[in-house]
Amino acid sequence: MITLDRLSLAIHGEAILRDVSFSMVPGKTFGLVGESGSGKSMTALALMQLLPEGAETSGAVTLDDGNLLDRPEAEMCALRGNELGMIFQEPMTALNPVQTIGDQVAETLRIHGVAARAEAREVARARLDRVGLDHVPLDRFPHELSGGQRQRVCIATAIALRPRLLIADEPTTALDVTTQAQILDLLRGLVEEEGMALLLITHDLAVVADLADHIAVMQDGEIVEQGPTRQVLSEQRHPYTRALLEASDHRPARTPRPLGAPLLTASDVERHYPGPRVGLLRRGAPLKAVDGVSLMLQTGESLGLVGESGCGKSTLTRALLGLDGVQGGSIAALGNPVSPAMPNTLRAGIQVVFQDPYGSFNPRWPVEHLIAEPFHLLDAKPARDARRTRVGEALQAVGLQPSDMDKYPHEFSGGQRQRIAIARALITHPKILVLDEAVSALDVRVRARILDLLADLQDRMGLSYLFISHDLTVVRAITDRVMVMQAGRIVEEGPTEQVFAAPQHDYTQALLAAAPRLPDYARKE
Amino acid sequence: MLRYVLGRLLSLGLSLIVASLVIFTVIEVIPGDPAAFMLGLNADEATVAALRADLGLEGSKAARYVSWISGMVQGDFGTSYTYRVPVGQLVADRLWVSIPLALFALILSTAIAFPIGILSAANRGRGLDYGIMGGTQLGIAIPNFWFGMLLVLVFAVTLQWFSAGGFPGWETPLAALKALVLPSIALALPQAAILARVMRSALIETLAQDYMRTARAKGLPRRQALLRHALRNALIPVLTIIGLQFSFLLAGAIIIENVFFLPGLGRLIFQGITQRDLVVVESVTMLLVFAVILVTFIVDIAYAIADPRLRRRA
């Protein structure tokens, strides 16, 4: 049994955690949920004593009789990897790129002195087999594996010595839904068979509802509510728990309207990438990233495009925006052909909002400059006063203040930045808005508000949306019609509710089955 | 891996051909008569004509290029106009000084730079780091000829441990090595300062990577995690700088060679230029280009050894 007793943490004097207390039992999963910045990961790092410099802890983390917080670093090194294992969010970067996976798993055994080289490799083989990598040789390097396989290697590394506690910090957030389901299954099996305690940290309530026996809800460094999963999620005593649950299932109110003429059409679009080099001058068969896709977006419509990473969504999006040329088929928007050579005035009519509200702004530009940038697409650029008026209006339309235009991006939160990105997209009064994973990086409550904003803007301005996402819940909430993409092709298409209620294609069925869903007891009407 | 090596070899060959064409064009084809240039303004017609024949400047440009290249491949670099000896012989003598000097300096600078770069990165933001970084700043700022002279003053003139200059030849290996000690220290120090800074910043970047956190979560102490996981990942930029430094040391040691009266390549090319001995200049330039391309090739192979992700790219 591992117990946290009034654990508090301050980094350079700033309080990060306040009186965090909970216990973890062998063979059970403890879910720690909360939004970004709530202190979930810091709780885990405090447990491991892997905190950044300037960290000061108080309270106690008890394992057996001792308080981990009092242990010297050398003793903690002996515990980490041995009694306490940990895996992280980003499997793509969590493994050393220049070491084979066999060496990395075996290293856990070798640094704790439990096995010599040959024996460590045998154990590594057995642990990799256990996590479902029996067909992958030990001498593979991480870059030769997929994201899901890499996360399995991380798990094998963490459980190589059968630790008593496994900490999984957002273990599936970076993975596709079908891979996520497999990794969660693996974790569940490990807890049951090996009897380890699992601390599962996630922002996704559906994931904990599915896996955890107990959960604790964290907000601003404090646990606001904890208890058996079913009880916490069905009773929802704390308002924050309720708010989180509502937000994760949020569907904005949308007014159904008759659809108008086709705005954006694509017929038999092909996008190829050159194949890998085979010889000096020869290349292999080209990779068909988009393979004969046709679509039509009508005025006032909201069209969803879902699929897992690598299915060709982004490549298709770039072609639809006229950023890349196509190798076959044709695209037309607002009655004109779309291509990299299309006129700027046409570009002004199709605008885009990307996923990352942090990376998509120049940090040295004030907001006014950022939002006004698309004006260069217009033949008649507004004068300075008119420009400020337009930017102010755009900011107001997305729920910000006109006075915000003189601030810089770092002064805004993630959700506010995404509002700025939407304002930038709206400044040229486009007819079509392409939302490329536009809410995927946001916390659930922020996401719910941005979805409300998008629904409201569509009603007021008669916009048409092409909504690209891997998140099925979001697509269901905001679209009228949905297309499912797999390996460059559209495998299923239809009215959103119909596709979700009665999926026809195997792949759509698999996607929907894999997507974690909140149990019915957690839904309050 | 084999395909990668073959790909790099191909690129090496192509670079050599392009470089030789450029050198040939610049020296022989561009307007102006090399023979007249070498003899100066006051030479009479007959002497120039004799030299033209002597240098093999008659005949088509293509034929001259082919004979130049085929000569070099067979080790015939032509005859120096001023020294009246085969250039091949001249260069070989100088290489016996320049290559050991460059290697010596490189080993020394690497041996200094690695530990202090690692130490600095491991203690980032602490007093030791500031001290080391201040020291490297000084190492970069001090001109190496001044440092060389200082070394001569202290170790040759005052302490009399080493001779102040000159090279006794490899017939007495120990004396030869001893003669190279002070110049290689003078050469190595600024290089080590640069390399240590590169090592430090590459390591600091690597230390922030996710896999370092994974290594710590496995139970590795901070220092071991650095040596086992960060070091190899930080090698790519360091190898790049080492390659550049070796190429520079081969010919760029000219000032230090002068300070210590060493008969190296740098001095040869310098003398070749001042005496307008185009045969020497042309051949030594080609040789240096070859050395730089060869070092680049070796560095490319070292990249692939350090980082398995590069082995696939041909």
| Regions with little confidence, pLDDT below 50 for 5+ residues of chain A | none
Helix content of chain B: over 70%
Name of the level-1 CATH class of the largest domain in chain A: Alpha Beta
Residue ranges of chain B: pLDDT <50 for 5 or more in a row?
none
- Could you tell me how far the N terminus lies from the C terminus of chain B, measured between alpha carbons in angstroms? 9 Å
Secondary-structure-derived class of chain A: alpha/beta
Task: Write up what this structure looks like.
The complex is a heterodimer of chains A (525) and B (314). By secondary structure, chain A is an alpha/beta fold. Chain A folds into three domains: 24-51 and 67-83 and 166-249, Rossmann fold; 96-162; 261-274 and 283-512, Rossmann fold (3-Layer(aba) Sandwich). Helices cover 35% and strands 25% of the residues of chain A. Chain A is built from 18 helices and 20 strands. Chain A has helices at residues 40-48, 73-79, 101-111, 117-130, 147-159, 177-194, 205-211, 229-235, 239-248, 313-320, 344-349, 367-372, 384-397, 414-426, 444-461, 472-478, 496-501, 506-514, and strands at 2-11, 14-24, 29-34, 55-63, 66-67, 84-87, 165-169, 197-202, 214-219, 222-228, 262-273, 287-298, 302-306, 328-333, 336-337, 350-353, 432-436, 464-469, 481-486, 489-495. In chain A, the strands form four sheets. In chain A, strands 6-7-8-3-9-10 form a six-stranded mixed sheet, sandwiched between helices. Chain A has a six-stranded mixed sheet with strand order 16-17-18-13-19-20, sandwiched between helices. In chain A, strand 4 (55-63) and strand 5 (66-67) form a beta hairpin. In chain A, helix 3 (101-111) runs parallel beside helix 5, helix 4 crosses helix 5 (147-159) and helix 6 (177-194) packs across helix 18. Chain A is globular and about 75 Å long. The relative contact order of chain A is 0.11. The mean pLDDT of chain A is 90. Chain B is mainly α. Chain B is 77% helix and 0% strand. Chain B is built from 14 helices and no strands. Chain B has helices at 2-29, 34-39, 45-55, 61-73, 87-122, 127-141, 144-158, 173-207, 210-217, 222-233, 235-252, 254-259, 265-274, 278-306. In chain B, helix 6 packs across helix 8 (173-207). The longest helix of chain B is centred in the N-terminal third of the chain and has 36 residues, at 87-122. Chain A binds chain B through residues 48, 50, 73-74, 77-82, 84-86, 88, 90, 93-99, 107-108, 111-112, 141, 143, 154, 157-158, 277, 280, and chain B through 10, 209-211, 213-221, 224, 228-229, 232-233, 306-309, 314.
